[in-house]
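job 3f2a | input accepted
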Amino acid sequence: MMTIESILLDGANGVRIEILERSDTTLVIRWVEPGRCHYGEQRWRRRSAHTSGTCAVSRRKIRRGDAVYKPAERPTPSNGSAMICAEVLEPLVEA
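job 3f2a | predicted structure (95 res):
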């Protein structure tokens, strides 16, 4: 896991996302969703979307099979259905 200079993103519905660390397939994210949940260090993994949805950062449509990052914690956290398009994050974390 590589620590990076943190990247702060404003997501949909007031969600604040801060990328703290990354590897090839994993991110450690601070997720703050006012009035709902706060995760100081949450592990997200890159995978194929199992369902369609909306990107938590860009609001782009996600189709089943698209490359996304999703929370990898067990039991499933409050934001367990959230997805972030890999296309949106990868240019930011590679820079």
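job 3f2a | Residues 2-94 form one domain.
job 3f2a | closed
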